[in-house]
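Saturday, quiet lab. Running sequence design on the C-alpha cells for the scaffold JK sent over.
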C-alpha cells in the first residue's frame, strides 16, 4: 500500500516536471511575443473590412455591400493601425453628389477597374481585365459573376509578394501630369482612387464634404 503511494507520488512529480516546459513553450508561443512571425495580412483573415452590422467583406462576392462599410481594419501600421475608414458604397455608386462632376453617377469600373473587357479611353495604361462585359448593377445581377475586393490584388505591405502582386507601378500618360504610382500596395491603390476624386470634386464645389486629410478618413470607429 505504502509502496503504491510512493510510486504514485514519483509518477505525479515526473509528470509535473514534464508539463512545466510544455507550459513554458505555450507561453513563448503566445501572440504577444510572436509579433515578428504573424501570418501575412491577406485582407480576409482577419477581415480588412466589415459592414456596420459586423459582416466581413469576403475576397469576392456577387452582392454589393448594402450597408456602409468600414475599411482598413487589419492594418499593422504603428500609427494608423488602430484607426478605420468609413465608406458608404451605396452613396458612392448611386448618388450624383458623390461623383466627380456632380452630374453623372460614378460608374462601377471607375473603382473596380479590372471588371471590364478592355481599357477605356484615357486609361490605356490599364492592362489587366477579368470580365467579358463592363460591370454595372444590371450586369452583376444577370451574370452572377463575383466582383473581387481590391485587396485580392492590392496587398498590404506586410504580405508576401508574388511576381504579380502587389501590382507594379503604373506610368501615366504625360498629359495627365501624374507621377508613376509606385508599388501598388493597398494604401497606394485606395489612396489614389479615393483621394484623387475627393480632390477634384472639392475643387469643383468647395462645400462638398469629401475627406482629404488623414484623420478625416482614418478614425476611431467602435
Ligand atoms: C467609389 C468607388 C466604387 C464604386 C463607384 C463602386 N464600388 Fe463596389 N466596392 C468599392 C469598394 C472600395 C469595395 C470594398 C472592396 C474591398 O473590400 O476592398 C467594393 C465592394 C463591392 C462588392 C463586394 C466585393 C466583395 O469582395 O465582397 C461588389 C459586388 C461591388 N462592390 C459591386 C459594385 C457595383 C456593381 C458597382 C456599380 C453599380 C460598384 N461596386 C461601384 C468601391 C466602389
Ligand atoms: C479618402 C480617405 C483616406 C484618406 C484621406 C487617407 N486614407 Fe489612408 N487609407 C484609406 C483606405 C481606404 C485604406 C486601405 C484600407 C484597406 O486596405 O482596407 C488606407 C490605407 C492606409 C494605410 C495602410 C494601412 C495598412 O497597413 O494596411 C496607411 C498607413 C494610411 N492609409 C495612412 C494614411 C495617411 C498618413 C494619410 C494622410 C496623408 C491617409 N492615409 C489619408 C483611406 C484614406
Ligand atoms: C484582379 C486584380 C485587381 C483588383 C481586384 C483591383 N486591382 Fe487595382 N490594379 C491592378 C493592376 C494589375 C494594376 C496595374 C494596372 C494594370 O495592369 O491594369 C492596378 C492599378 C490600380 C491603380 C493605379 C492605376 C490608376 O487607375 O490610377 C489604382 C488607383 C487601383 N488599381 C485601385 C484599385 C481599387 C480601388 C480597387 C477595388 C475597387 C482595385 N484597384 C482592384 C489589379 C487589381
Ligand atoms: C468618383 C469620385 C469619388 C470616389 C472614387 C470616392 N469618393 Fe468618397 N466622396 C465623393 C464625394 C463627391 C463626396 C462628398 C459628398 C457630399 O459632400 O455629400 C464623398 C464623400 C466621402 C465621405 C464622407 C461621408 C459620405 O459618405 O458622404 C467618405 C468617408 C468617403 N467619401 C470615403 C471614400 C473612400 C474611402 C473612397 C475610396 C474607397 C472614396 N470615398 C472614393 C466622391 C468620391
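Result came back. Writing it out in full:
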Amino acid at each position: 500500500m505504502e509502496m503504491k503511494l510512493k510510486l504514485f507520488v514519483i509518477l505525479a512529480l515526473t509528470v509535473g516536471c514534464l508539463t512545466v516546459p510544455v507550459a513554458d513553450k505555450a507561453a513563448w508561443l503566445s501572440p504577444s511575443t510572436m509579433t515578428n512571425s504573424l501570418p501575412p495580412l491577406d485582407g480576409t483573415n482577419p477581415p480588412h473590412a466589415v459592414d456596420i452590422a459586423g459582416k466581413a467583406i469576403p475576397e469576392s462576392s456577387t452582392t454589393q455591400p448594402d450597408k456602409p462599410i468600414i475599411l482598413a481594419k487589419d492594418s499593422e501600421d504603428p500609427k494608423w493601425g488602430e484607426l478605420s475608414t468609413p465608406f458608404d458604397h451605396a452613396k458612392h455608386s448611386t448618388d450624383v453628389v458623390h461623383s466627380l462632376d456632380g452630374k453623372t453617377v460614378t460608374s462601377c469600373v471607375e473603382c473596380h477597374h479590372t471588371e471590364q473587357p478592355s481599357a477605356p479611353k484615357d486609361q490605356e495604361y490599364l492592362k489587366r481585365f477579368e470580365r467579358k462585359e463592363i460591370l454595372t448593377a444590371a450586369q452583376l445581377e444577370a451574370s452572377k459573376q463575383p466582383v473581387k475586393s481590391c485587396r485580392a490584388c492590392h496587398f498590404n505591405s506586410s504580405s508576401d509578394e508574388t511576381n504579380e502582386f502587389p501590382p507594379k507601378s503604373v506610368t501615366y500618360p504625360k498629359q495627365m501630369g501624374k507621377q508613376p504610382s509606385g508599388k501598388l500596395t493597398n494604401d497606394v491603390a485606395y489612396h489614389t482612387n479615393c483621394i484623387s476624386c475627393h480632390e477634384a470634386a472639392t475643387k469643383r464645389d468647395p462645400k462638398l464634404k469629401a475627406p482629404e486629410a488623414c484623420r478625416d478618413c482614418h478614425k476611431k470607429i467602435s
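Notes for JK: The pocket of heme C (ligand 4) is lined by residues 85-88, 91-92, 97-100, 106, 110-111, 190, 193-194, 197-198, 201, 208-211, 217 (CB under 6 Å). Residues 50-217 form one domain. Ask whether to fix the surface positions before the next round.
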